[in-house]
Write a structure and sequence with these properties.
The chain is mainly α. Helices cover 52% and strands 10% of the residues. Strand 2 and strand 3 form a beta hairpin. The longest helix is centred in the middle third of the chain and has 27 residues.
Length: 130
């Protein structure tokens, strides 16, 4: 049951982490942003969809009522369960990894997004490329 509860808690944490990371792309730290945005959007959409299926299963099949009490503390059917920040971080990492290249690996939906005109690939003007 601990694994199911941890997965239930970790999936929204993974979604929030990915949404936070998407905001970093707006800070000009990446030269080619569209592929990363496509990856993140696909990950978020798939994890959200799977989370709602898991939530339905947790409620109907397992009859679990999981409510957050405070950081790392959750009430599960009236019983307090605590998770360390390391356990939550590891659970979040495992969720993301399983969708990127694990058992739940997603297919990325690519959109045609033009590159910004200011982007020039490295060494375009060098003599070796002519």
């Amino acid at each position: 049951m601990n694994d199911l509860v941890l997965k239930y808690i970790s999936m929204p944490l993974a979604i929030n982490t990915l949404k936070h990371n998407m905001a970093l792309y707006d800070q000009d730290k990446f030269k080619i942003v569209p592929p990363y945005l496509d990856l993140h959007e696909s990950l978020i959409n798939t994890i959200e969809k799977d989370f709602y299926e898991l939530k339905k299963d947790v409620i109907t099949s397992h009859r679990l009522d999981i409510r957050k009490q405070s950081t790392g503390k959750y009430m599960v059917n009236g019983e307090v369960m605590e998770f360390t920040s390391e356990e939550l971080r590891e659970g979040t990492k495992q969720v993301i990894q399983s969708y990127m290249y694990g058992e739940n690996m997603i297919e990325v939906n690519h959109k045609e997004i033009p590159l910004e005109p200011r982007y020039t690939p490295p060494d375009v003007d060098s003599e070796d490329n002519r």
